[in-house]
Design a protein that fits this description.
- The chain is of the alpha+beta class.
- It has a single domain, classed as Class II aldolase/adducin N-terminal domain (L-fuculose-1-phosphate Aldolase, 3-Layer(aba) Sandwich).
- The chain is 41% helix and 12% strand.
- It contains 9 helices and 7 strands, in the order ααβββαβαβααββααα.
- The protein has a 7-stranded mixed sheet, with helices on both faces.
- The relative contact order is 0.16.
- Bound molecules: zinc ion.
- Zinc ion binds next to loops.
């Protein structure tokens, strides 16, 4: 859940004037790719009205880019906001921002290798976050990046009972980043998951195939005992398949563009 905390009414030109980050504009292609990433993740069923994707600023590694508080399918280039790693918006100019932006900032701070972050509530992954004895593991070659085990963040361990399960502070973001460690995927108990990568396109690929792996693992488990990828297979398959991310991106981009055109 990521409800509005304020409603902005300024125009794009006013937003630029208000910016505290003039002269440091992010690359326009990167901004366009971030918009595309939003649309792909919606079209592929990873996000719905909720969930978000960010990318580290190409000129300022201590900043990241993330849409204002809105459904990913509707994001345009004018909706991208720049943040520092504490989740402080630098050019929001009154526009509402996501409640869970601290996920992104604290992961970028903890993981210099991470260039993009996807947080979602993709529906088939959530069950793996709430069962105690079934690990979420790579079961197919397209998802080798998941490896042989996935950390599971339980907010109750950090903040006690009665939270809304959302990562709404830097302390919670830090705790989540600590649970993620050096892995690619972290489950979030009863909430969703967060996926990281060294590029935006790879993060989108991994978020899509995290959901695919969850479907495949759940289906295989119903049929019988599952043979998972080994540690060695996880490494080899991810090294091999992830050289092909561009193919998925190019296809998903066109498909999402058609879907977006249908919305408008
Ligand atoms: Zn969330």
């Amino acid at each position: 859940m990521h409800e509005n905390s304020a409603i902005g009414t300024k125009t794009a030109s006013q937003i630029t004037e208000d910016s505290r980050c003039q002269g440091s504009s992010a690359d326009q292609d990167l901004l366009r790719d971030l918009v595309t990433a939003n649309h792909i993740l919606h079209d592929q069923g990873v996000v719905d009205a909720f969930g978000h994707v960010s990318v580290r600023h190409d000129k300022h590694p201590d900043r990241f880019l993330l849409a204002r508080n809105m459904a990913p399918a509707l994001v345009g280039i004018e909706d991208i906001v720049e943040f520092d790693l504490d989740g402080e918006p630098l050019n929001a100019a009154g526009r509402a921002v996501y409640l869970e932006r601290f996920i992104h900032g604290q992961i970028y701070r903890a993981r210099p290798d991470v260039i993009a972050v996807v947080h979602s509530h993709s529906p088939t992954v959530v069950p793996f976050s709430v069962v105690k004895k079934t690990p979420f593991r790579a079961v197919c070659h397209m998802a080798g990046f998941i490896g042989t085990g996935t950390p599971n963040f339980d907010i109750r361990d950090v903040a006690g009972d009665g939270t809304d399960l959302l990562i709404t502070s830097n302390d919670l973001g830090k705790a989540l980043a600590k649970t993620l460690g050096d892995k690619v995927v972290v489950l979030m108990r009863g909430h969703g998951s967060t996926v990281v990568a060294g590029s935006l396109k790879k993060a989108v690929y991994r978020a899509v195939y995290t959901e695919v792996n969850a479907r495949t693992q759940a289906e295989a488990s119903r049929l019988g005992e599952v043979t998972f990828l080994s540690e060695a297979e996880s490494v080899t398959t991810s090294n091999s398949i992830e050289t092909q991310v561009f193919r998925a991106w190019d296809f998903w981009k066109q498909k999402a563009a058609a879907a977006t055109a249908a919305i408008f």
